[in-house]
Prior knowledge:
The complex is a heterodimer. Chain A has helices spanning 2-11, 13-20, 34-39, 44-53, 86-93, and strands at residues 24-28, 31-32, 62-67, 73-77. By secondary structure, chain A is of the alpha+beta class. Chain A has a four-stranded antiparallel beta sheet with strand order 2-1-3-4. Chain A starts with a helix and ends with a helix. Chain B is an alpha+beta fold. Chain B is 61% helix and 11% strand. Chain B has a four-stranded antiparallel beta sheet with strand order 2-1-3-4. The A-B interface holds A 1-2, 5, 19, 21, 24, 38, 40-43, 45-46, 49, 52-53, 55, 57, 67-72, 79-84, 88-89, 91-94 and B 11-12, 15-16, 19, 23, 26-34, 76-77, 79-80, 83, 86, 90, 92-93, 124, 136, 138-140, 142, 144-146, 152-159, 162-163, 166-167.
Amino acid sequence: MHYPNSFLSYRSLKLDALTAGTPRVLVQNGQMIKEAMAAEHVNEAELLAMLRLNQVDEIKDVARGTLETNGQLSVIKTDEAKELEKRDLEEAQG
Amino acid sequence: MEKLVAIALRVAITYLYLLIIVRLSGKRSVAEGTPFDLVVALIISDLPDDMIWGEVPLAQGVTAMATLITLHLVVALLVYHSPQMARLFESVPSPLVLNQQPIHRNMAFERVNDRDLDAMLREQKVDRRSEVEAARLETSGLLSARRTEKSKPAEKGDLPRLKKLLGGHK
């Protein structure tokens, strides 16, 4: 049963959405999306804890926070809050 | 032979039913992040066994799982809507380090000794307590660590400052 499910889920996005669910965006541009949080039964305290566990101190630093189908929050930071890259050093040098 | 077909059918029905139940319970149950999510996972992992081997009629197993998931949804809703219920069912994060100093009272209460604390900090890629502004034991049992202003990684937003610094040295 499991094999056909994972095989078919791989082939069909519709079946995958049905059996695995779809990720849901809980934070957008530093703002909590209350309706999405209600749908996933995630309260404010829990969301802030998830952010802390993602090493995010300020919600304003979050460009998009998505509750993935495995129940973990994935965080993409805003451009401002993204970590410095090697190329930034070259740019800074001018 | 009939018995084997019956087992195959039971497995198929249990599989599909369990899949539906787990999906209905929501993403957070899959992550087992809170005590009540964990309790559901513990009970639900024991039920299908009896259904598959026919030790319990399917209808009874189906009822048991449906009851469990209903209870779970009720608790999840209570916790979502009421901070008091959240306190009761999932407790609150407990600060173990504040302003670089360990809080031994909370550590004792959570039964986290100094070695445990350092190990949990390392898992958060923190080497020294002096780098920690606040570390909390979250309700999921994981430690979150907020770094001090000085030990935070540089961000793109720091770029203008860096440029200015470099410019000044030319």
